[in-house]
Amino acid sequence: MQSILFATTAVLLAIAPIAGVAAQPPGASLTEWNGGYGGVPPWDKVTPEGLSAALDAGIAAQAADYKAITAQTAKPTFANTIAPMQNAGETLDRATAIYSVMTSNMSNDAYRALQKAFSPKLAAAQDAINLDPVLFARVKAVHADMTGLDAQQQRLTTRIYDRFVRQGANLSPADKATLAGYNQQLASLFAEFNNKLLADETTWVVIDDEKQLAGLPASVVASLKGDAAERKLGGKWAVVNTRSAVDPVLTFASDRALREKVWRAFVNRGDNGDANDTNALIAQIVKLRADRAHLLGFKTHADWRMQDTMAKTPAAATDLMMRVWPAAVARVKEEVADAQAIADTEGAKITIEPWDYRYYQEKVRKARYDLDQAELKPYFELGHMIDAAFYAAERRYGIKFTEISGKVPVFHPDVRVWEVTDAKTGGHVGLFYGDYFARTGKRSGAWAMAYRGQQRMPPKSTVLSSNNNNFVKAPAGEPVLISLDDSRTLFHEFGHAIHALLQDVYYPGLAGTPRDFVEFPSQVNEHWVLTRDVLDKYARHYKTGAAMPQALVDKIQKSLTFNQGFATVEYLSSAIVDMKLHTVPDGVVDPDRFERETLTAIGMPRQIVMRHRLPQFGHLFSSDSYSAGYYSYLWSETMDADTWAAFNEAGGPWDQTVAERFKKTLLSTGNETDRAEAYRAFRGRDPDVKALLKQRGFPTE
What we know:
By secondary structure, the protein is of the alpha+beta class. Among the domains are: 4-198, Neurolysin, domain 3 (Orthogonal Bundle); 201-267, no CATH class; 314-350 and 569-695, Neurolysin, domain 3 (Orthogonal Bundle), CATH 1.10.1370.10. The chain contains 29 helices and seven strands. Helix 10 runs antiparallel to helix 11, helix 10 crosses helix 15 (354-369) and helix 27 packs antiparallel against helix 28 (675-683). It is globular.
């Protein structure tokens, strides 16, 4: 459920959107996006050297764009200040879009060196805008007198003014210099953290005894064999240290010693006391964030970060988390007891440990629901599920996906591309890029991003959206079979793409949404995986072509709240630790000790570890994006559960009235109105947390 780059890019576009004002700099071949469809990234021309030149040129061009605004002598107005700010920074926007993709999807030594060099440069370039006293004076003057501006212009002006204040525009020159130093130090530390984590995720556990493969589905064994061959480990199998490779082993491998070895390697990423240990970096990051918050007039980093969110305060986010936490912990106790009972019945003579949880939960699932996850995989072939995601979006929102792979450049041969059009008019909406497979140099997890955002303000632009997953490739000629959870992840990330593609805003500065709203559309989209129409059309057995039997669907439906204790505690513990870490006033922490003591204080079940332990918590330490913000998945799920209830109350998942209202009120409007007000306009009230508790199978009272 990871979507870091989608939100990060949305914010970037909101600050300095795509438009054209820059001269022809060195490296321009990477920032001149031609080739139809409103222009596309020239991925076939990207090199580290060329990207370095493009970034340098983009930084210079952005400075020139803003200099043209501040050099004016005319009285500041919306037309001569706020509007041109919307169209500033085209060259840098395009360069940073390519930079984000190459450092996340195609990383190598050259790109890691580039990231190390440019992270502080890019932070300094943004500070040069945020801390420019002349620019802020002009913004402040427009904000002080918004007479004659329409509602959107007033909202845009207010949001820009508030952002400048939050970023330090009111500080003294000396404090601005201190702030800029903090930001550049943090940018360097983020890059270093990311590179250390990526290095640990390129390690693997070797299996050299075929007996250790017992219990693993044939498709998993084949992928482990392929990963070993890629690493020149002939006759062996390799479990790469990423979630997509580790989880199947923890779920199906009968060899307990193997499960423990794989589990320990995975949960200790960044925490091995070696060159890739991240604890010292985390301590520096947390301290710098606290110091920066104090400089900006806030008690903690969390208080600063949550100014522009729906929750508004750390207390509000914590209240929601702690309302759910006790029920989740109680459910875990029940799940552990169920697992222990099966282990005892089988004569395993063990006490359930974290590396046993997934393995025995599958046994409980099979015993209770006669449902085996391995039984489901033959129905979830990757290509079919991609088509299923398109079908569900087309049916609800009136858009059409037509594959154009081979007609535009891509950064890797595995990447596929579709043109998105209006189903009624045939008008061009944008492009969707799908990068679905794991590879060396690609960070783990799944995420979405936009290479270019939509805007109606001239020069108009259409969306270039992407999804990035880490599914394991099958051997040549074999189908790629994914799990039900993987299918949900596919639909989740595609929900971000739908959100971007359906956006219809005039000012790009009103495009990005608050952190705790951004996951909402993607979480809603997950529900369509198990609709009967999608299953009948696309979840068909890869060998026989038969539709999934209703009896099997019924088993899935009955088991939907199964193991929600584990899923909720695994996620929510990470969110709680994040919030508590970033509400330490002085920011002085020992990460390992802080994690351990915080989990003890909240009653963390010993049979589970955080989904993201601090030493590998990329959401928090690869950028500021999700810091004091990991709670947002739960906040968004509250709206998601309530929205799904709205569809069902109206007659089902394909109700066109609800779909159109959802599209018009929430998906297309970006941040043109307050998102809480927009939700109330959609639902007629605030979201009901009882829908969330019911969705997870927890008591609602």
